[in-house]
Amino acid sequence: MVTIDSTLNDFMKLDYNTREMLLEIMQKRQIEARRKEIAKEAKHSLKEYKEGKFKAETAEELISRLKTL
């Protein structure tokens, strides 16, 4: 079974340059995964807006509504 601890131990066995490269790769993959998640949420929100589940409102209206939460 792979655990975070065993993964970290294996990671630290790598040489410094390889660790740096791996960190950069992982950071870029995380950024790309987040972009995909944001795009998916935006498409879903747009679909719901087009279905009439949301109404357009001004920034002032939104800020006012947020202050009541």
Describe the structure.
This protein has 69 residues and is an all-alpha fold. It has one domain (4-67). It contains 3 helices and no strands. The chain is elongated, with a radius of gyration of 21 Å. The N and C termini lie far apart (44 Å).
Taking the sheet with the most strands, its summary is:
none
Radius of gyration: 21 Å
Order of H and E elements: HHH
Total number of beta strands: 0
Tag the structure with descriptive keywords.
single chain; 69 residues; mainly alpha; 78% helix; elongated
Overview in brief:
The chain has 69 residues and is mainly α. It has helices at residues 4-13, 16-50, 59-67. The protein has one domain (4-67).
List the helices and strands and how they pair.
Layout: H1 4-13, H2 16-50, H3 59-67
